[in-house]
Amino acid sequence: MTVHPSLQPSIDAWTHTIEAISELVSSLVDGEWNRPTECPGWSIRDVVSHVIGGECEALGDPRPIHTLPRDLYHVIDETTRYLEVQVDVRRHHTGPEMTSELEYTIIRRARQLRNERRKPEDNVSHPLYGQLPLHAFLDTRVFDIWTHEQDIRRALRKPGGLDSPAAHVARDVLLKRLPKVIAEDAGAPKKSAVVFDVGGPIEFLRTVRVDENGNGTVDSSPSLGPIVTFTMDWETFTRLAAGRAKARRIGDKVKIEGDAALAERILASFTPAH
C-alpha cells in the first residue's frame, strides 16, 4: 500500500482497469489485434500501445526516437502527433510482444505506485497536461486507461466494467470537463443552464450553469428552466463525452429537449480523448 492512503482509491481503480485490459487481450489472435476501435485511427493494438506508452512515460522512461509517417489522417495537431509516437513505434509488434510488454509495464508501474512517496498535492509535470497535482495526474491516467478499456471491449463485443471503480473516476473527470465544453466551446448563452440526466450503471443529474460573465460551473442541483436537457444512458454519455461516437450515429439513444441549435453545438464540441 502507498504511503498516502488518500491515493489508494485511485491506485486500486488503476489496477482494476489495466488488469482488465491485460485479461481482454491475453488470448487475442493476430487478426483481432488489428480490429478498429472507436478511438480515431487506432486498432486494438494501437490502443494497447498507447496504454503501454503512457505508463512508461509515467515511470520516467525516455520517449522513443521515432519519425512518424506522413499519411496518418488522424494525426492533426501537436497533441495527436505526440501521442502517436508511442503507438506507431509498436505498430508492427506481434501479439505476444504486445502482451509481454504490457504485463511487464504493469508490474513495474504497480511497484512504483506501491512505493509512491510523493504527497497527493505534489505537482507532477507532464508534456500534455502541464503542471498538476499527483492525485489529479493519477485520476487522469485512470480515466485514460478506462476509456481505452471500453474501446477494446466494444471492438471485441465484450461489454463490462461500466460500473467499476475506474468508471467512477472517469465520471468525475468527464464532469469536470463539461463547463468548458458548454460555456466556451459551444458558446452557451450567459445566465443559462444545461442539464445532463444520465441513467444506467452509473446515474446522475448534473447542471452546467453559465454565469453573467460566460463562465461555466457544474453542480448536482436541478435547474428550473434549462435551455437544453440531455437524457441518455451512462455508456452513451461516455461515448459522446470522450469523442467516441458522433451524435448522428447514436441519436436514438439521446433525448434532447430545448434549444436544438445549441444542443447540436454542444454535441459537436466533444472531442476525442486519447
UniProtKB/TrEMBL annotation:
GO molecular function, one term: metal ion binding
Domain MDMPI C-terminal positions: 168-265
The keyword Isomerase belongs to this UniProt entry's keyword annotation: yes
Positions of transmembrane segments: none
Keywords, ordered alphabetically: Isomerase, Pyruvate
InterPro entries per the UniProt record, alphabetical: DinB/YfiT-like, Maleyloyr_isom, MDMPI_C-term_domain, MDMPI_metal-binding, SCP2_sterol-bd_dom_sf
Domain Mycothiol-dependent maleylpyruvate isomerase metal-binding: 16-153
Source organism superkingdom: Bacteria
Keyword Isomerase: yes
Classification via Gene3D superfamilies: dinb family like domain, SCP2 sterol-binding domain
NCBIfam families linked: maleylpyruvate isomerase family mycothiol-dependent enzyme (TIGR03083)
Identification of the protein by name: Maleylpyruvate isomerase family mycothiol-dependent enzyme
Provenance organism: Streptomyces radicis
